[in-house]
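Meet my pick.
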Amino acid sequence: MRQHTAASLSKHPHQCQPERCVWFGGGRGSEDARTTAQIVAFRSLTAIIPYVRVVSWRLLLGTGHQSMSTRTLFILFFSLGVAFVGFAQYYLFRKFHRLIRRSALQLWLQHTLLGLVCIFLTLMYLPYVLRLFYKWPEHEVSNLILYGALYPFSLWGLASVSTFVIVFVKDVGAAVLHLRKRLEPLPMSSRLPPQEAFPASRREFLRWGFGAAAASPMGIFTYGAAVGKERYEIVERRVEIPRLSPTLHGLTLVQLTDIHVGNFMKQEKLERYVRVVNELQPDLVALTGDFIGSSPEFIPACATALEKLDAREGVFACLGNHDYWVGARSVTAALEAAGVEVLRNEGHRLMIRDAPLNIAGVDDPWRGKADFDLALSSVDPNAPTIMLCHQPDLFPAIAQRAVDLTLAGHYHGGQIKFKFFGFAVSPAHLITAFVEGFYRHGQALLYVSRGIGITGPPVRLNAPPEITVLRLVPSSTVG
C-alpha cells in the first residue's frame, strides 16, 4: 500500500490518486469481517483484558458518566495523569542523579549536568500546569511555539513515561533476582567469582543494550510524530449490502472521522485532506464525529475547511464526544452553515439513481442520548440503512435494529499500536473490542475507521491516518 504525506499534496496535487489497498469486506465468507465468535475467542485468549476494561470504565465513568461535569472529569483524570508523569520523571531523575554521582566526572561538571536536567524537567513539566489551570493553549499557536514547545513537551511526556516503565521493570527484576540469590544461595562448588560469572564484555554489552532500550522510546515516538502521523492511507473496500438496489451498484461513500482540528490539525492541513476526498469523486461523504480537539476557538476553521467538500448526494455527519466538550450546538450550527447535514438522532430518506437509501445518525452518549429508534423513525423500512455513530461500542444495540451498515471511529485504530508475533496491542484494546476494521453481528456490519487526527500526544504508530472509500454493492453481485 502506498503511503502519502498530507503536507506534500499542496505542492503536487496531481499525486492525489494513490495506489489503493482493496480488501473485500462484508460479503459471504469475508475474512476481513470479524464475527462475534472471533471476538469472544480473542477475549478468551486474553482473559485479563475484559476485566481491565471493566475496571477502566468504572474508574472512568463511575456510576454514570453524565453525573459528573466535563470540567470535573477533565481535572480529575488530567491531575492523575500529571501526577503519574511527575512520578515517572522524578524516578528517572533519581536514577540519573545516582549515575552521575558514581561517575568519574569532576564535581563542578556533575553539578552542572544535574542543574541542566532540573531546568529541562521543569520546562517540560510546566505545560501540564498551564494546561490544567489555564487551559493553555486555547488558540492557534505559531509554528515557533508548535515545534519549539508543544511537540517537544508532548513527545518528552510520552517517552519519559515509556522509559520509566522499562527502567522500573528492570529494577524490579533485578531486585527479585537479588532477593532470590539471598534466599537460595548456590552450593559452594558451583559458585564463581563475579568476574568469571559475568565477564566484563558481557556486562558492558548488557549495560549498553539496556541503555539503548531505555532511550529508544524517544526515537520511536519522534518517528511516530514526524512520519507515522503524516503518512495517511486511502483504504478502499467493497461492502455487500443485501437490500441494496442494483442501480446503486458501486455507490461510493467516503468516510472521514476523528479530525480533531486544533494545533496539530490546522485548517490548512484539513483542507489538503478535503482535496484528496474531492478527487475521489464520492457520491456520499460520511463524517463520524470528533471534529474539534479541545477548544471551541477552532470551530470556524473546521467548518471553513469542510465547506469545500464536494459529494454528489450530500455530506452527512454525526457528533463525537469531543464535540460535546467544546459545545455541540456551536459545532452543529457551524457545520450546517457549511453545508454539512448533522444527524442528531434523525434519519433521511434519499433517492439516488431512482433507488431508495436511508442514512441516519445518533448523538454521542457522552452528554447526549443515542436514540436509535428516534433516528430510524423517519426512514424507509424497506430500504437499506446506513447509520453514522461515533462510538463503535454502540454497535451491538444498533445491530438489533434494521441497520445494514454502521460507520464509526473514536479509537483511532489504537493510535499507538505495537505488534508482536502477529498480534496488535494498543491502549484501545483494554477498552473496546471494536478498534478498527470490519465487524459483523448477524447480518449487520460495522466499519471502524482509524480517522485522520490525533488525541493526546501527536503520535501515530502502526495506525496511520485513514481515508476510507466504501464501494457499496448488492449481495448478489459479490462472488
